[in-house]
Amino acid sequence: MFTSYITRLGTVAFAANQIALNILSFGFMPSNGFGATATVGIGQEIGRGRRLEGKRFGMVTVYLGWDLCHCFNYDKIESTKWYMK
User: Fold this and answer.
1) Separation CA 17–CA 6 (nearest Å)
2) What is the pLDDT of residue 51?
3) Which of 78, 74, 82 is nearest to 28 (CA)?
4) Which of 5, 33, 45, 70 is most buried by a 10 A CB count?
5) Distance of alpha carbon 4 from alpha carbon 13, whole angstroms
6) Domain parsing of the chain, residue ranges
7) Distance CA 61, CA 53 (A)
8) For 17-67, what is the HEC assignment?
9) Half-sphere exposure (Cβ direction) of 48: Cα atoms closer than 13 Å
């Protein structure tokens, strides 16, 4: 919907919008990857009847995701520390 409004502004505006959307989607890719990894890993462990290992797999994935965010210096990670208590 938004892009249809941008196309009315011309080809340069449309190209700039596409570049911005591609950059924006790049920011979501790591979290989508960690989410898919956690889903598959937890599902496999539960399927094997090892619920505790599934929980451990999920928590390790959370920690790895947070570490990745810290590598990119995301300041909003501090607001999620309540979750780990």
Assistant:
1) 7
2) 94
3) 74
4) 45
5) 11
6) 2-84
7) 12
8) HHHHHHHHHHHHHHHHHHHHHHHHHHHHHHHCCCHHHHHHHHHHHHHHHHH
9) 10
Q: Is 23 exposed, middle or buried (0-12, 13-18, 19+ CB in 10 A)?
A: exposed
Contacts with 65 (C-beta within 8 Å, 6 or more apart), sequence order: 30, 31, 34
Q: How far apart are CA 65 and CA 76, in angstroms?
A: 13
CA atoms of 44 and 54, how far apart (whole Å):
8
Residues of the chain with pLDDT under 50: none
Amino acid at 17: N
Tokens of 61: 């994935």
Q: What is the CA radius of gyration of the chain?
A: 19
Lookup result for tokens 């890993």: 41
